Amino acid sequence: MAEAFVKTSKRDYAYIADLRSAQRVLEQLPEWFEDYNNNASHKGLKMLSPREFLRSSMEDLKQVRYN
Q: What SUPFAM superfamilies has UniProt attached to this entry (predicted)?
């Protein structure tokens, strides 16, 4: 799983980022993580972002509990 995350990070974020200094990279990391978790679709999550997948899973659980 970690290898896939590193590969995706390099392909989708680091490749097009400002990498002139370690400080600049560290400043960009929160934006990359935010995008990765909120917007980027993941094949292993049925093409949903991690947060979309969690929301969907929680809604499914609520429906099971209340039905």
A: Ribonuclease H-like
DSSP string, 6-52: HHHHHHHTGGGS--S-HHHHHHHHHHHHHHHHHT--BGGGTTB-HHH
Say how many residues make up the chain: 67
Locate the domains of the chain by residue range: 2-66
**Neighbour-count burial for 8-18, b at 16+ CB within 10 Å, e otherwise:** ebeeebeeebe
Q: What is the pLDDT of residues 14-31, one digit of tens each?
A: 999 999 999 999 999 999
Q: What is the pTM of this model?
A: 0.71
